[in-house]
Every structure is written in C-alpha cells, then in structure tokens.
C-alpha cells in the first residue's frame, strides 16, 4: 500500500513533485485562502504527511486542520514559518534541509557584495549602452582588506566567514550569544557590529526574535560608506528605514535577496541605483536544489520506515 502525501501547491519543483508522486499517493494542498479552507474542512482528515517549503511552512492553524498529521517534510532550512512548539506538542516531526545549501547561500552573499562594491550591474549596462569609452565609469570600492560584519554566525554565516578569508577581510559577528570556540570577535550588539563593519551581511535565522534586528540605528551606524547584504529573511531588516537610508545615501548600498513582503518588492527600492536585487535565489543552484530535494525525500522515507529523520528540526 502506498502512503498518502499532501503536497503544498506551488511550493516544490515539478521534478521533485514527480519523484514524490512515484512514491506516494499525492494530493495538492491549495495555497492559503478560501479554497484551502474549504479543502481542509472537507478533506483534512487522514493525512499523516505533508511536503512543503520554508516559505509556506506549517503554522498551528494548518496543523490543527490536519488532525492526523505526523510528519512535515520541508524544502529549505528556514523554520520561521513553522510553529515548532505547537507541532512538537502534537508529536509531529519536522524534516528540513540544513547544511546542503550553505555554500550556495554564502556564494550569493559574496556575489551581492562584489556586485555592489565593484558596480557589476552598472558596468554591464554601461558596456551594453555603448558608453565605453566615451564616458567615464564611476570608481568602485575595494573589497580586499575590508571589514566584514556577519549578523548570524550559524551554519551559513560560518561559510560566509570562510569565504571572507579568501578576500583578506577581517571578520566580526553578532549573535545573541558568543559562539563557543569561534576565532572571530563577537560584537554584543548589531549596532556595534555595524559601526565597525564596511560590509554587513545578514544571515540570521528569521522569526519574531530577529524581527527588525537591523533597525534605523543599526543602518545609521553602518554609515555612508557601509554596505548591507541580506540573504536571510526580509523581516530581519526594517525595510522602510533601509529605503530611507538608501534614498538619502546614508548608507552606500544594499544587496538584497529577500524582502519584507516578498515576492512584492517596494517600488521605492526598485527605483534606486545603489541596490542590487535578487528574487530569493540564495539556494537556487542545480546542485543545491537537487541535494535539498533528495533530503525532502530521505526525510519522508525515514519517517515511513520508522527511522529517525536524517534532518529533523
Ligand atoms: C528556499 C530558503 O528559497 O531554505 C530556506 O529557508 O529560504 C530557501 O532555501 C526555499 O525554501 C524554497 O522555496
């Protein structure tokens, strides 16, 4: 007998969906809204497993509409959209995909950092317009030897720090508590780190505790020569304050892969030329997405085989 699996509509790639359909009796769970509510009211019972992503998550309300739920397998490392205490209380296990995306996200942080500091997007447009050599191209900012502040020295943050050594950058970080054994200086406040840093990379886990960790004051401290790079969650940065600072050139620039109400990106941000914007593609390489997909499958297989999940939250 094949097990049944609910799949969050719009969440997984067609290839991963096909691989799950080979293994399970699947059904799409509509996106949040009236259609989903109606589906759950009529068909919420009997689903032991659901596959979803970090972006959709599983909150207490969804879990309570699925009274037989026992396992959630999420494509992604972020857990900010999961009500872990409520799920744990019901004995529901959550599988996710940590570690396999560290390199891809750290690479994107550096891609944004270099794109900003070396004006890569502008340079590309400059050449395409035929402005070379008739017009001067503006000066850029050197990366080597600069100070890199990392907000969130976790799995991905540590890889960002490793990348930084190749650029001869000095690294400090801010976490709520110092990381035991870390060779880097811990700054007790995000503001203190921003004051010190030339580049501030945000890679803290999202969620209520980290909401607006990067305040107006933190941006003020980063200053007119400082760059902000956010590859974690839009909610970690006060986006309205960020827009103000960028518009008034009170910080030098921002590289953003995530936004407060993504996929909506404020028009004000899109108008600015001191930003580089990306559509939440931190983990979006073939190699990484394949490894994440495999982990989603492995977590489900382990659950149905009665084994511990390879990656349980
Ligand atoms: C993905 C992410 O974009 O892992 C995360 O937490 O935000 C990203 O890797 C997402 O999970 C896929 O939709």
Automatic annotation (TrEMBL):
Top-level taxon: Bacteria
Molecular functions (GO terms): glyoxylate reductase (NADPH) activity; hydroxypyruvate reductase [NAD(P)H] activity; NAD binding
Record CDD domains: HPPR (cd12156)
PANTHER family for this protein: 2-HYDROXYACID DEHYDROGENASE YGL185C-RELATED, 2-HYDROXYACID DEHYDROGENASE-RELATED
Family annotation (PROSITE patterns): D_2_HYDROXYACID_DH_1
D-isomer specific 2-hydroxyacid dehydrogenase catalytic domain mapped to chain residues: 13-312
Pfam families (UniProt xref): 2-Hacid_dh, 2-Hacid_dh_C
Entry keywords, A to Z: NAD, NADP, Oxidoreductase
GO CC field: cytosol
Family per similarity comment: Belongs to the D-isomer specific 2-hydroxyacid dehydrogenase family.
Protein name from the UniProt record: 2-hydroxyacid dehydrogenase
Domain D-isomer specific 2-hydroxyacid dehydrogenase NAD-binding: 110-282
InterPro entries xrefs: D-isomer_2-hydroxyacid_DH, D-isomer_2_OHA_DH_cat_dom, D-isomer_DH_CS1, D-isomer_DH_NAD-bd, NAD(P)-bd_dom_sf
